[in-house]
Every structure is written in structure tokens, then in C-alpha cells.
Amino acid sequence: MSGTPETSLPSTLHQALAALLGPSGLLTDTTDTAAFCTDWRALYHGRCAAVLRPASTEECAKAVALCHAHGVPMVPQGGNTSMVGGATPDDSGRAVVISTTRMKRVHSIDHADLTMTVDAGVTLKAAQDAAAAEGLFLPLSISSEGSADIGGVLATNAGGNNTVRYGNARELALGLEAVLPDGNVLNLMRRLRKDNTGYALRQLLIGAEGTLGIITRAVIQLQPAPRARETALCAVDSAAGALELFSAFRKQDPAAVVAFEFMSGTSMALVNRFIEGAGLPLSEPAPAYALVELSSPRAGDGLRSLMEDVLGEALESGLVSDAVLAESETQRNALWMLREEHAEAQKRAGASVKNDVSVPLAAIPTLITEATAACEALIPGIRVAPFGHIGDGNIHFNLVQPEQMDAAAFSARDHDIMDTVAEIVRRLGGSFSAEHGVGQLKTYMMPSWRGGAELESMRRIKNALDPQGLMNPGKIFPAA
């Protein structure tokens, strides 16, 4: 059964876009556009006049220029995995969604430079696989890597599991190409480690959440493929214990630590309850867990001895009560599944409020202790389920509705919950958004957290590049 267009594009614009993009590149039927108008968490349900699916930078630039000339708002969208509604149109039906999912080419991999050049629509997993096929390694890794694409990863400056060693997406991008809000193409595809010639415009686009333009291609730094890797899941009594264990590994060999993840007992219990195939490979449940991974490009690098030495001392001192080491790639993947499925498990458990926050490492135990008490006092029975990247100070301090509470009633308290956590984060010198961005979920926080000269500078940059406010409106900036 055919749907109907949500709204009509101006006829001249519709004809021009149809001629430019073809039938697979211009979607107006609501049956076809619906999936592009709702975010992964189903928090936002918008409408759009059409979905544009350019297959190249040239098509994207021409489409943007046409929309700009007609004053039509544009919402860039990649894999649509945003946690903060950053790629969802509003409910006016005026905007078009510009999806990069047809731009899927891996252009080249350079072994001398250790770089790959890819289109924005290549998924992170596909880029990882392309690098691996050449004996190289793309170190950025996030839970949604099978759906999230390179353009979106860069637009949000994604972090993920390996930030502690390799940095965020920002540190991995050498070059960018982007279509600006008026349709001009900004070519910054220089594969240079040193290029001190004025403003670093690529860094301005990275993390801008599509408000300054649409990233269409990128040059990404690679690494030699790991030839030795050790992974272990450890039971600890608290976040403080996990942090102490992290310090023990760093003292032995900081270069070996590629990932160090924290999981609360509550959050792990949800994974074991709601995710098929999940199973805790320890003797009994623990109050908290740490997942540690070491790696090296050198075979026989003594990583097993390092892992066993640190864990042996931790077990002897009581810092770790139990631990399991992966003996195969299958076992490693099973351990990582326990970490990667936390967001999905919480989604299946009911309504949740996600606080993607960061604090200095030493403040992590205080954050978890104080925010847990504050949220439990705010809503009795709330399930406090924090997890995340303890190695770089980024904790996903997530709260799941009480078992007997209505989901809608719980979701209606989202600002109360977010503000309760945020005030503790502020006092500890942290940030209210570590790696998910601002999107439309957290725009109301910007004036108090980033107000004054900082927010005003952002507005001036936005107005200079997008004076009509057409590119991803309603994101990052609070309503004036």
C-alpha cells in the first residue's frame, strides 16, 4: 500500500531534485521516508518533505545548492544511530533529510602513509574490514559500528572503546571534504601530518553535528594490525576498584592498554537477562566489572605475562575477586559482547535516561556514588545502570525505569534526572556530553554550561557559514 508525501516540495525544486538524483535518490512517499524521521531511541518522531540520497559529492553539492536557493532546511543523516536526536528532522515537515548511505566507496588505502580515503556513507565496520583486509587496523570502535557511518562518526567526534590509546575520531581524521550550507564544496583532503596554514577548518567540522555542512569524504589514519592481544573480564567491588586496576595496568605498561571498560553489576544483570546468548563467565555476579584489553603490533610481546602478573597481584590483594582471560577470538568476542550490548539491554528493559558524561578520572568513583544516591532519592526504585570508558573518564550514567513504573511517566522526568546528574558532573569539573554530542536532547543545557563568550562564538561561526540557519536546524543551539 502506497503512502503519501508528508508535505510537498516546491514543484520546481522537486523536478530539479528528481532529475539530479533519480528515483532511488529522491524519496517522498511516507512509507519510504518514515525510517529516516525517527531516531534509534525512538525519542523523536519528525516529518520531512523528502529524503535525498546523493551518490556522490557532486550530487550532494548540487542538491544542497538547490535546497539553499529555495530556503529549504536540510538535516544530514548517516547511519541514524544518534543517541541525542542529532539526525532527526522536526515535525514541521519542511526539512529534507540528506542521507549519505549511497556514498559507500573505499577509494584507497595507503600503506606508506597508513591512511584510508573513504566516502562518508561507508560504515565504520566496513572501513574496519577494508583496513583489516590490507593487514592494517582502524582503531575507532563503537557499539553501533555496523550501522554508524564515517560521516556521522566524524560529525559527532565519536569516541568509543579505544579512545584511551588512540583518541577520538578527531585524532584519527587527517583530511575532510564537506558540502557547505550553500552547496560549495570545501576540499580539505590533504594527507598531511603537518600543515600549519591558517585555521584548522576540518576540526571545526568534526563534532559540529552537521550544523556547518555535510561531510562527504575523509582521510582516516590507520595503524599496523595487532599481532598480539589479550582480553580479560574482571570482577571488582566498585568503580574505585576498577580505577585502581586501571592504574595498575598503566603503571606496568601504558602503551599496551588499548581499552579499559567499566560495567556496573546492575547494567551487566540487564545484559544477561535481555540479550540472547549472553552469559557471565565468572563464578558469581559481582558489584562491578572491568573489561581490559591489551594489544601490540609485535607478536610474542609478553602481553599474556603482563596480564597475568597484574591480575595475579590484584587477585592476591583482593582488588579483583575473579577474572577470566580469553583463550581464543571466539571467547574475546563473547567478552566484548557483554560490554557492547548494554545499550540494547537497557532499551529492552524499558524507558531509560542516558547521561553521556565525562569527569577527571580521579572523580569517577565520586560521580557514581553521589549520582546513584541522588537518583535513587529522586525516583525510588530507579535502576542505576552506569557503564562506559573508565580509561578516558567517560561514563554512560544511564537510568532505567523502576520495574512497576509507567514508561511514559518515567520519560517525562528526563530533565529532572539529567539535571540531577549534571549538577554533580559540573561540581566535579566534567562535561554533560562526552561523546554523544548535544543534538536536540541537550540544547537546553548549553546556556548554563557553555554560555557567554563560548556559546556566542559558536553562534557567530554558525551564522557566518549558514546565515539562513538551514543546515540541521534545532541541533546544538537552544532556541533564541
From TrEMBL:
Its cofactor is FAD. The keyword Hydrolase does not apply. It holds the Pfam family FAD-oxidase_C. Residues 44-225 form the FAD-binding PCMH-type domain. It comes from the Bacteria. Transmembrane segments: none annotated. Gene3D superfamilies: 3.30.465.10, 3.30.70.2190, 3.30.70.2740, Uridine Diphospho-n-acetylenolpyruvylglucosamine Reductase, domain 2 (3.30.43.10), Vanillyl-alcohol Oxidase, Chain A, domain 4 (1.10.45.10). One of its GO terms (biological process) is respiratory electron transport chain. The keyword DNA-binding does not apply. PROSITE patterns: FAD_PCMH. Keywords: FAD, Flavoprotein. One of its GO terms (molecular function) is FAD binding. Belongs to the FAD-binding oxidoreductase/transferase type 4 family. This is D-2-hydroxyacid dehydrogenase.
